[in-house]
Structures are given as C-alpha cells and as structure tokens.
Amino acid sequence: MSPVSSPSARPGAAADGLSRVERKELTRQSILAAALRLAETGGLSAVSLRQVAKDVGIVPTAFYRHFDSIEELGLALVDEAFVSLRAMLRDVRSADPAFKDIIDSSVRVLTEHVRAQRGHFLFIARERFAGPAAVRSAIRHEIELCERELATDLARLPGPDAWASEDLYVLANLIVGAVVSTAEELLAAEGRRSAEDAVAERARTQLRMMLVGALNWRSRP
Amino acid sequence: MSPVSSPSARPGAAADGLSRVERKELTRQSILAAALRLAETGGLSAVSLRQVAKDVGIVPTAFYRHFDSIEELGLALVDEAFVSLRAMLRDVRSADPAFKDIIDSSVRVLTEHVRAQRGHFLFIARERFAGPAAVRSAIRHEIELCERELATDLARLPGPDAWASEDLYVLANLIVGAVVSTAEELLAAEGRRSAEDAVAERARTQLRMMLVGALNWRSRP
DNA sequence: CTGGTCGGTGCACAAGCGTTCACTGAACGG
DNA sequence: CCGTTCAGTGAACGCTTGTGCACCGACCAG
C-alpha cells in the first residue's frame, strides 16, 4: 500500500514530482493529522501506533521512521497546536487598538480560531490533564508563556500601567483562565451557531466585568 | 484469591461479620478506588477491566457482577466525585457570612478539599474532556448545576441583588470558571505547599478583583 | 433443613497491541 | 553510471485485552 493518500500516491511506480524529503514530510503530516483525529475518542494515550499506521496507509513499523513513540508524536502535536494559537494571539494584538471594542474584536478572533482549528484546541484542552506527563508539562509551559506575554501587553494599557508587576501577572492569569474556559465552552457547543453566539456574548460581558474591576483596582502599597 | 483485601478477607473460609450485600458493596468500593487510581495515568479510557480486577483481587469476569462496562464505572465515579464537591460547596455556604473575609474562607475551603479529595478533582479535570461522551456530558451537567446554585446565592448579596438574572448567571459562570482554573492549578502544584500557597494567594486577589468589578457593575437597562 | 440466589472462579478464545528483524527498491550524491 | 541511503515492507514474537461459558459454594429466605 502507498502512504499519504491511498488511491493516488504511488511509491513504487513512476515518481510524482516530489523529492524524497518532501514525501517524508508529507507522510509525517499525515501521521500527525491521523493521530489528531484518532485522539478525539479516548485521548492520546488511547491512540495506538497500529491504528495510526493503518489510517495513514503505511505498515506499523514504518511509523518508527518518523517518531520513536506515541508520546514523542504527542509533543510534536503540542508544537503544532501552539503554532496556531500563537497565530491567534498575533491576530488579537494586531487588531485595531481602539480601546472601546478591543474586547469585541478579541472575542471574535477567538471564536473564529476555535472554529478553524477545532482539532488543535480540543487536543490541548484534553491532553492538558489526560496526556502523558511530558505532554502535560509542555502544554503548561506554553500556557504560562502566554500569560507572561499578556502581562507585558497589559502593562502598556492606560489603567494598569501603574500596577505592581505581581498584580499584572495575577490579572493576566485570570484573563487567560477565562479565555481557556471560553474556548472550552465553544468546543462544547460543537459547532452549533446559536450556542457559540451565547458563549461569545457571555465572554464579552465577563471581559467587561473584569475590565471594570481592573479600572477600579489599586495595587496595595 | 480473595476480594477487597488480599491477605485478610477469606471468601471460602469462615465468614467475617459481613452480610452478602455488605461484602458486595465493599468490593464495589474497591473497584471504584482502583479505577480512580489507575485512571491517573492515561485517563479512564486507558483503564482496563483486567487491570482493575487484578488490583482489586478478583478475577476479570467478576467485574461484570458490578458494572456492565468501564464507561458505566466512569459514570459512578462522576457521581462519587460530585458528592464530595457538593460537600465542599456546603462548607463554603455554611461559613461565617461576614462579608469581608468570605473570600479568604472560601479559598481555604477549596484548597483543603482539593488536598483531601485530590483523586476526585483530578478525575473531573481529566475526564471533563478526555472521557467517554456520556461521562463528559454528566460532568458538564453537574458543573452547570453548580453555576445555577451560585447564581441564586449571589442574588442574595447586597451588591448584585439588583442585577438582571442574566448578568447574575454570567458572573456565576465567570467565578466557577476561575474556581475550576484554581483547582486545576492546585492539582498542578502536586502537593508542594509553597506552590499551593502561591496559587491560593493569587486566587484571593482574583476573586477580590472580580468583586470590585461586580460592585461597580450596573446591568444594562 | 433445604433450595435458590448470586459473587466469585477458571478456562478458553479471537483480536489487538508494541517491537524485532531481514528485506526491497526508488531516489540521491559523487 | 554506480554505490549508498533510507522510507516503506511483511512475517513473526510474546503479551494484554474484552468476553463467553460452565461451574462452585457461601449466604439467606422459606
């Protein structure tokens, strides 16, 4: 059988226009995609090497040409997932910084990214607690990076710019937590637009509530 | 081999002072405890009937005398876990309602319960996304109940008592989300007191920030 | 005392798992 | 052109898995 796409690619026959490294990368991507899909029922630890291989269209042992173990595959998936998450953060940051509707645009960017990268968000939400220890700590580390980034962003805002850096991080932690909860509720909406809209509206109100709290907050001496 | 406690209980020999139903319940509890522990590495879907049986000290097929499947066992664990969670909520509610330190006492109750019921909290945090569909929706349903309960509690507070019920639920959702995040961070602290204390202190500040936000919030007309 | 109930036993089976090993042949560098 | 590299092959291994079945014997109601 041929890898990557069962009916079209021909490994032993005439060469497509692809170099050897290109074909290897293609198979690698197929493995990642298959694992992401298979992990949706039962989590990463329930993904079997043989299932992935069958799904990709290669023999089980060929898996080892790309990853040493399922756990290493999981770490690669974490990387992949946080690439799209960072893309989202970039979008949020580059949005119109008109203070008034910064919340609206951020929530919209979040809902769109969750819809577009559903698989990655699901993976992170799941493996954050269910994954192998190495995967869990990789995810935790990445989330912590996001919090620190947000804290430095907040420091540039007119209200909290006079805060203790301690309080800045605490607020960032609170916001990231709320965003994670919102993302998880969006996932639970399973694509139903009305449910998604309700979650988004709720998130807007919550962020506004937090904003009101922040604007009336004074760091203790 | 004998169930419940390998060296002491004797099934075929002289009877301990236990009736048949008592012995069955004891075995059932042992199965639940074993499953909870085994689920810690790999999640519920990675728990095998045979492992549980070996751990409890019964033969694999005897498992079916208590549960039809691992999934049904999972639902029983959800029930068990939310029993302790409700006990926690009762403790929070019955605490001294002196408005000033209601936050301090709530956070202390939370940290104590997470420490005492670590296994249950871990189970909920994990299976909320990684578990079988039935388990996931059972957990989601229970959390939603907690949010509604909290909303009715909030309605009795001096500040938000004039709010729209819509906003009350939104605030309850925000608080529950923050509490869930805090519980998850307490779990991530893995029992190290200094880390736990830092999380608790952060949670106190966050709840105060939300309180400030709530006190300055006005429901839109 | 007796007969039914039922938790626990022991064996068997087919299916799936990760991993090993020697192999093939297209793509590539010199 | 020719030798090397290496992604993918295919058979084989020892193990664990869920589940079906006939069976046992302590408990308990009558």
From TrEMBL, chains A, B:
InterPro entries: DesT_TetR_C (IPR054129), Homeodomain-like_sf (IPR009057), HTH_TetR (IPR001647), HTH_transcr_repressor_FabR (IPR050692). PROSITE patterns: HTH_TETR_2. It holds the Pfam family TetR_C_46. Residues 25-85 form the HTH tetR-type domain. One of its GO terms (molecular function) is DNA binding. Keywords: DNA-binding, Transcription, Transcription regulation. Residues 48-67 bind DNA. PANTHER family: HTH-TYPE TRANSCRIPTIONAL REPRESSOR FABR (PTHR47752:SF1). This is TetR family transcriptional regulator.
